[in-house]
């Protein structure tokens, strides 16, 4: 069993490696030293207003070339400390918006690249196929799970098994959206044998693919399903209970963490909290729960 301190050291090492790789990809081969690092860097305070942007429909909105000011989101609960690692390095503001018409092609060519990936030789040799992700390239909301299971490995599509059926209900009956309107992906694109938890090296190998997917789609909101997704993207070792119920940011994108649907299948009592998380998202997105009385609309709660 690793200790929290070891977990944090490992995550810190991964953050540093990812930052260096990102700099390398941007053509920066040298970093001038010494770099005066602030003793205890912290995120600048974000605006803590309560107004929610009106966004009545899911039409793709053109996004400016530089990351726009994020919509006003509720302030973090003061009683909870910030995630352990998220403030160590501020993200460079290099995000550019990919034209909507280019996204499908970019995702398709990336999917072809991923299908040949052998960075994790064991996963490559045991998977039936990779599971890249699916949904709208202009989705406002992206769900991110852990890794394909047996059903996903067989079909090549994310969240199609029992947990997938629950996620689909959360999206359709709970939020009044369709699966086609959102984008669904995983941290790993290959099934870990016996559905074991992804290993840190596997996460490190696969995360750049997801980061590219997010950069192409640039959704307005992220919903991270479970601890693996939350730890990988928010670079934190905090337990899920400390991460859900408040807003985070991944590269400026307002992000909610909630229980993984598989955990909800095992612990139905947690559905109430998961529903509260979805409602937080829906409020920020300007969405209303479907009317229970309407034929076909079952609502949720
Ligand atoms: N669990 C996940 O995390 N992802 C899937 O695609 C299926 C089950």
Quick recap of the structure?
By secondary structure, the protein is an alpha/beta fold. The protein has ten helices and six strands. β5 and β6 form a beta hairpin.
Give structural attributes.
6-stranded mixed beta sheet, 38% helix, binds uracil, Uracil-DNA Glycosylase, subunit E, 6 strands, globular, 301 residues, alpha/beta, 10 helices, disordered C terminus
Q: What does it look like?
A:
- This protein is α/β, with parallel strands linked by helices and 301 residues long.
- It has a domain at 104-285: Uracil-DNA glycosylase-like domain (Uracil-DNA Glycosylase, subunit E, 3-Layer(aba) Sandwich), CATH 3.40.470.10.
- Helices cover 38% and strands 9% of the residues.
- The protein has helices spanning 4-25, 100-115, 121-126, 150-155, 162-174, 200-217, 227-234, 240-243, 261-266, 271-285, and strands spanning 134-135, 141-145, 183-186, 221-225, 247-250, 253-258.
- Strands 1-3-2-4-6-5 form a six-stranded mixed sheet, with helices on both faces.
- A hairpin with a 2-residue loop joins strand 5 (247-250) and strand 6 (253-258).
- Helix 2 (100-115) packs antiparallel against helix 6.
- The longest helix has 22 residues, at 4-25.
- The relative contact order is 0.15.
- Residues 31-94 and 296-301 have low confidence and may be disordered.
- The site of uracil has 13 residues, from helix 5.
């Amino acid at each position: 069993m690793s200790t929290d301190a070891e977990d944090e050291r490992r995550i810190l090492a991964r953050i540093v490696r990812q930052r260096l790789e990102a700099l390398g990809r941007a053509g920066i081969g040298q970093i001038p030293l010494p770099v005066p690092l602030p003793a205890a860097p912290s995120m600048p305070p974000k605006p803590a207003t309560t107004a929610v942007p009106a966004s009545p429909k899911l039409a793709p909105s053109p996004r400016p070339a530089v990351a726009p000011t994020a919509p006003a989101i509720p302030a973090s609960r003061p009683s909870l400390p910030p995630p352990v690692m998220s403030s160590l390095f501020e993200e460079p503001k290099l995000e550019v918006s990919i034209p909507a018409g280019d996204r499908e092609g970019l995702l398709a060519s990336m999917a072809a690249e991923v299908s040949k990936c052998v960075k994790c030789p064991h996963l490559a040799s045991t998977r039936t196929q990779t599971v890249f992700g699916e949904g709208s390239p202009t989705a406002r909301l992206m769900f991110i799970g852990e890794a394909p299971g047996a059903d996903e490995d067989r079909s090549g599509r994310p969240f199609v098994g029992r947990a997938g059926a629950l996620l689909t209900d959360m999206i359709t009956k709970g939020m009044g959206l369709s699966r086609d309107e959102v984008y669904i992906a995983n941290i790993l694109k290959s099934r870990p044998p016996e559905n074991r938890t992804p290993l840190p090296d596997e996460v490190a190998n696969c995360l750049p693919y997801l980061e590219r997917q997010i950069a192409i789609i640039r959704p307005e909101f992220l919903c991270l399903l479970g601890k693996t997704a939350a730890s990988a993207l928010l670079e934190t070792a905090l337990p899920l209970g400390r991460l859900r119920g408040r807003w985070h940011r991944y590269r400026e994108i307002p992000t909610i963490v909630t229980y993984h649907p598989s955990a909800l299948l095992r612990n139905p009592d947690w559905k109430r909290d998961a529903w509260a998380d979805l409602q937080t998202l829906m409020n920020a997105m300007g969405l209303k729960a479907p009317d229970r009385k309407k034929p076909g609309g079952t609502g949720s709660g």
